[in-house]
Specification:
By secondary structure, the protein is mainly alpha-helical. The chain has two domains: about 5-85, DNA polymerase, domain 1, CATH 1.10.150; about 115-290, Intergrase catalytic core (hpI Integrase, Chain A), CATH 1.10.443. The chain is about 60% helix and about 5% strand. The longest helix has 22 residues, at about 270-290.
């Protein structure tokens, strides 16, 4: 595999497409996995045809990869070969006629308001970790931000007096309001925990680990798992579960879909409409169970 071509492609995605580091890492993994397959089968990346790529994708399925993983790999290869074609490294794009496998879209898992309450009650504000974890969980549920956005927050991104946070990515910034409970939890964390945990006053990270370094995605995942177990909640909870619950609970209480789209940072309203479908299904289920003539 020509590593220079891959590096040039990733550099193009970063500078021209402004993709996030996580997305770039995903492309890198997919293309390197494909490159290993080509090397093991004595195939040339620049001479690969449609049939060879289809065989590769079939091999992923045979090795137990999920349909979503196979679809993502094809998307990565399609972008890669489009780049190679535009830069005249290949004369044809071998992925142009390949169709992505159909993915069965499962509705996102949602916690009830009672389950959220139970989860948020778990961190006890009796030590540095408790104050920090309470603030993080309250903030995620109060704003619906992604875990990457959470750990990327800096101290200057929050305004506790006005009650909002600024959430930024490579292309845009959005302002999200936060409620009183989250504001209180954040104030307690900043005053009673963050200042002690920080190794340097010049560090701008809002949330840090017990070593005073910016918290990682993996670190927050472990925190979620810890409190799920403590609360004896039998639903699988990820950081995204709180994001989904945030959206559905807003809808249940009358929020407009466009407002939720803005807060979640969805560029397309169709991404937000899945939550409206969940709410409609819930209402229909209640009707079928309770109406005497349903």
């Amino acid at each position: 595999m020509d590593n220079n071509l891959v590096e040039n492609f990733l550099d193009f995605l970063q500078k021209d497409k402004k993709l996030s580091d996580n997305t770039l890492q995903s492309y890198n993994r997919d293309i390197k996995l494909y490159g290993n397959y080509l090397e093991n089968n004595n195939l040339d990346m620049l001479k690969t045809d449609e049939s060879s790529i289809k065989t590769y994708l079939d091999s992923l399925k045979e090795n137990g990869k999920a349909v979503s993983t196979v679809s993502r790999n094809l998307a990565s290869l399609r972008s890669f070969y489009q780049y190679l074609y535009k830069t005249k490294c290949v004369t044809e794009d071998p992925t142009v006629n390949l169709e992505s496998p159909k993915i069965e879209r499962k509705p996102p898992k949602i916690l009830s308001a009672e389950q959220v309450e139970l989860l948020l009650e778990q961190p006890k504000c009796v030590d540095l970790k408790g104050y920090r974890d309470k603030a993080m969980l309250e903030l995620v549920y109060a704003t619906g931000i992604r875990v990457t956005e959470l750990i990327s927050l800096n101290i200057d991104d929050i305004n506790l007096e006005s009650g909002y946070i600024k959430c930024s990515n490579r292309t845009k910034q959005r302002v999200i309001p936060i409620g009183n409970l989250a504001v209180t939890a954040l104030k307690d964390y900043i005053d009673k925990s963050r200042e002690v945990l920080l190794k340097s006053e010049e560090d701008t990270a809002l949330f840090v680990n017990m070593n005073g370094q910016r918290l990682t995605r993996q670190g927050f995942w472990k925190i979620i798992k810890q409190y799920k177990a403590q609360a004896n909640i039998d639903v699988d909870i990820t950081p995204h579960t709180l994001r989904h619950s945030f959206a559905v609970h807003l809808l249940e209480n009358g929020a407009e879909l466009r407002a939720i789209q803005e807060m979640l940072g969805h560029s397309d309203i169709s991404s937000t409409q899945v939550y409206a479908q969940i709410e409609q299904n819930r209402i229909k289920d209640v009707y079928m169970k309770t109406h005497p003539r349903a």
